[in-house]
Amino acid sequence: MRIANLIHTKQVLLISLLMCCSGSIAAQSDVNWVNGTVFDFGDINEDDGAVSHKFLWSNKGTTAVSVLTAKGKCSCTTAKYDTNPVQPGDTASIIVTFDPKDKVGEFKQRVTIRHTAEPSTNYLFVKGRITTSEMRIVRDFPIESGAVRLGADTAVIESGKTDRCKNAVTVKCINHSETTIIPTLSGKIKGIETDVTPSAVPAGERFTLVFTLENKYASELKGSHCYNLYCGDLTQEPHKITIIVK
User: Fold this and answer.
1) Are 191 and 213 in contact (CB under 8 A)?
2) Are strands 223-231 and 183-186 parallel, antiparallel or unpaired?
């Protein structure tokens, strides 16, 4: 008898759980995104400045809905919206603006929308590909070296100015070829760490060379230090990068 009761209890719990899950799956938001939640800008030019898209939404419910917040994941993406309640059957919009300044290549940015309907959170996405004009590339990366252009080939690390145990300096570069490259730095110096980010760089995209000094070695490393930058082919002539520790 006790076993039968236990089986019955488990069956009731299982049915309740299935009903609960079924109800959750069936539940739909009163917020309807008229043309979807993803917009593709396609190719945009960095020099043309910020681009915007208007996302439309309608209130399919029986009570008014208000947008509470709309925040981009990154400061390059912002959203503008009306805080007034949207009545049942009415339509409103959220304008998402993306600023491509100092960016290049593929992008996908998210905006988190919070409102008074349930579920209370929605996500909008804008995406595309950023290109940079040749004039700007030459201006920002004046040094040409084979497949890449560099913003500089000499950088200074000034030690002892802060209480931090490390100081770093970066050299900005761009892949000016039509293929993906894998840039590498040769030359190892105890007390200076090197890094290339990202490790593989698609055509037209930027990367950075990072040199990090451990300050405990600063006194013995004061002066100039040379590194060789290769871009995937170690048989080609490298470009020399000079790091000066002061």
Assistant:
1) yes
2) antiparallel
